[in-house]
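ENTRY TYPE: paired fold submission
RECORD: A
CONTENT: sequence, then structure tokens
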Amino acid sequence: MALGQLSDRQRRCLELVSQGLTSKEIAPILDVTPGVVDNYIAAAIAKLGASGRRDAARIVLGHEKVMVQPLHLQSEAIAPALPLADEMHQADQTQGTDSKPIGTLHHLFSLPPMGGRENDLNVADRLLVIARISFLAAVLLIATIVTVQGVILLLT
């Protein structure tokens, strides 16, 4: 295994893959395109001789767990936990000192993320997500009907 040959970006991509993120979800965190993320991961797979992205992520994650063992008596004030990918992405989405998320309207109408993340939503949040999806489906259905009617009117 050639763990020492991995670049910082390749290692970071594999760490995020190990958290269940897709290339599309990793790209905004690293401020690159999903294609660049795929290239980093493909190069890392080749260097590690792994069978795929998950295998490469397991190799890197397993190596780092062996190399970095937490001190059991060390307090959180001395050794703070590293932020998760979700926290880093949320930090990237805030602006200035008012911490108001960028694109609040986009967040309101966006679909929930896909991937291997845990579902830690309470009942009210789950119902809100279901309502968002239902609303978007209704808007899409209405837009499709209006478009088809417009095409029919043009053709007649």
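RECORD: B
CONTENT: sequence, then structure tokens
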Amino acid sequence: MNRTKKQHYLPQFYLRYFADETENLCVVDADSEKDYYIVKVRDAAQGRYYYDFAGDEEKQSLENFLGLLESYIAPEYEKIVAQAEIDIEMTDEQKILILNFVKLQFIRSDWIRKKIPHKILSEIFKPDHLANSDKLVHAYMIKEGMFLEAFDYLYNFSIRVLKCPKNVEIFTSSFPIFLHKASDLNVLLNEIQSGLQNKSPFLDANLFFPLTSNICLYIYNPMKENNLKDDNWYSVFVTCGISFADRKIYFKPQDFSKQVYSALKPLLNTNDFHLS
């Protein structure tokens, strides 16, 4: 049986919405000496055998399982994008699909594997048969759909479609859920860990989710005050996105984006950076 070496923690179909017609992405990488570099979709947001793990008897992988999910989501996602471009509202079923996709991207992200210690995940999900391994606990968590129900409160949230200003495009990252909440990363990390344990991460935060390079979704609690305005959402998105990006951001290669986003490189994942 052939094994896929490059396993993506951001689906390729999703990345293509931020790439050019030749599937090139521009990357601003906090760990690179370059201001930015170009990479193909197939080489972005992936790890070598990322979802492979040692089972009880032999090597196992979540790659095929996630691939099946993506093959179902991708055409529905395309319909949602097409509707958003011409201001047609999502149906209730489409809202549920998008929220499920957001939940999946949270749980499968490399950010979770790196930021949330396996000891905490083990305490939450108690996989007694697993060794002390970040990768193994993370794989088990994805396989069992762990804490997806923790995000069920999002089904009561509203979704607002935000379109980019003229000649401006947005970015995504391997952790494309950007919280709109005033705090620093260390405080937020503690809140996320506590939220996972209480099965309610991000309960008090609204979320930005980049849908395409031109469209962003704002997922918010309609019962609470919402100060996001049409004329300033882009600057707020950039501030939140740079704070939560997993040390890399991906966007369509164009001169304006290269200039603006490479200038923000020093702020990627800095612990003293505050959201507004």
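NOTES ON RECORD B: The chain has one domain: 16-267. DSSP finds nine helices and eleven strands in the chain.
STATUS: closed
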